[in-house]
Design a protein that fits this description.
single chain; alpha/beta; UDP-N-acetylmuramoyl-L-alanine:D-glutamate ligase; Protein-Tyrosine Phosphatase, Chain A; 2 domains; 8-stranded mixed beta sheet; 15 helices; 17 strands; about 40% helix
Length: about 425
């Protein structure tokens, strides 16, 4: 295998369930990790949660980078190129670095008995190999699914973060917040700081942290934020540190949306906890927060009509999207480009947008999990969400149709999946 594309095809073929396949468990990871001889020589932060993981990782990554450290960040999924998943100081890893890492993982996988790694497991091991080769001084690992049995949990975090706990991925994590909270709490470690930025954490999460002896730190009790009535350009972050309370007035972060203050607050609290091993100054924090960018998180594309890209795909995230849309100002009409996986709570997820969309462009997503445009249209109609409905065979086609229909005074919102946003981005790039 010579090219990155060759390797990615190989990864898809290894496990019976292919790229989209999910098989939770750590045994395969540990066998190959041991064969690789992977050790940990730098602080590791594991970030889990239903929503907000990517934003929290981005804040951590940007601030640590600005503090002058070599930082590696592993996230998923990607939008346009696999390289986006593995970043060194904010820049996607090169094809050369990824191919070399894949080759080492493949050799170790064979030595360990031809272990049938999943696509995500193989990618996680390779990301660590990239970080090791680059001699990173800090590693940020984003949970793919759940936490307890997720591939990144084969590594030992110095700090663990759970951003939010909401209903999603019920087929693998359980039907309610109690079960899901327990699964996400699996990234906490005995004696190590474990943060939760959910204002109402499930009892199961709190109990698990106590049972294993984790140093659980909760938003609103141990760290948090305040909006300043006297200065709308700033917010205040606070955090308990030993017997004192640290407070900082800061400019609003670069990422948009009402939930970003809690994401920024937990990122800063985690950095405070790492202060002995990875000190960062306000000279890194202030510009780091302001300059953080992340495609597909309430991303507003410049120009007219206004275009908002958001990977929101579950009821909690789409409710936040709906709130954020309400603060954008007035637009004549709102056009929605939506594509979702069929295993999601589609009706529940779309409900926050009832009577807020004038025209729906439903898109079929490829793959076995993808919902058809026709099935999305049926849900939109049955739920009486309002607006006209059009069906398209791809997100790219849906985006092209929405752009052709929208006036300069309108806006287009694109959401429902990473694949939906990726298709819209492809349509936008083709336009230029």
């Amino acid at each position: 295998m010579k090219t990155l594309e060759d390797w990615l095809q190989h990864l898809e073929s290894l496990h019976p369930k292919g790229q989209a396949g999910v098989e939770l468990g750590l045994e395969r990871m540990r066998r190959v990790k041991s064969a690789l001889g992977q050790g940990q020589r730098c602080p590791v932060v594991i970030v889990g949660g239903t929503n907000g993981k990517g934003s929290t990782c981005a804040y951590l990554e940007n601030i640590i980078d600005r503090a002058g450290y070599r930082v590696g960040c592993y996230t998923s999924p990607h939008l346009l190129a696999y390289n986006e998943r593995v970043r060194l100081n904010g820049r996607p890893a090169s094809d050369t670095a990824l191919c070399a890492a894949f080759a080492r993982v493949e050799a170790a996988r064979r030595d360990a008995g031809n272990v049938a790694l999943t696509y995500f497991e193989f990618g996680t091991l390779a990301a660590w190999e990239v970080f090791a080769a680059a001699k990173v001084e800090a590693a940020i690992l984003e949970v793919g699914l759940g936490g307890r049995l997720d591939a990144v949990n084969a590594y030992e975090p110095d700090v663990s973060i759970v951003t939010t706990v909401a209903i999603d991925h019920t087929a693998w994590l359980g039907p309610d917040r109690a079960r899901i909270g327990f699964e996400k709490a699996g990234i906490y470690r005995a004696g190590k700081p474990g943060f939760c930025a959910d204002a109402n954490p499930p009892r199961t999460l709190v109990d698990h942290a106590a049972a294993i002896g984790a140093d659980l730190r909760l938003i609103g009790r141990d760290f948090g934020f305040e909006r300043l009535a006297e200065d709308r350009r700033q917010w205040r972050w606070w955090c308990r540190s030993g017997d004192r309370v640290v407070k900082r007035s800061l400019a609003y972060p670069g990422l948009r949306g009402a939930t970003q203050l809690s994401n920024a607050a937990v990122a800063l609290a985690a950095l405070e906890a790492l202060g002995d091993r990875l000190p960062v100054t306000m000279q890194a924090i202030r510009p780091g927060l302001i300059a953080t960018e992340l495609p597909g998180r309430f991303q507003v594309v410049p120009g007219r009509p206004a275009i908002v890209l958001d990977v929101a795909h579950n009821p909690q995230a789409i409710a936040v999207l709906a709130d954020n849309l309400g603060s954008m100002g007035f637009f004549d009409r709102t056009h929605a480009v939506v594509g979702m996986f069929g295993d999601k709570d589609i009706r529940g997820a779309l409900q926050p947008l009832k009577d807020k969309v004038d025209c729906w462009h439903a898109a079929t997503l490829d793959g076995p999990r993808g919902a058809s445009a026709e099935s999305l249209a049926a849900v939109i109609g049955d739920a009486r969400l309002g607006g006209g409905i059009f069906c398209h065979d791809s997100p790219r086609a849906a985006m092209q149709a929405a752009r052709g229909q929208a006036a300069e005074s309108d806006r287009i919102i694109v959401f429902g999946s990473f694949l939906t946003v990726a298709g819209a981005l492809e349509a936008l790039r083709a336009k230029h």
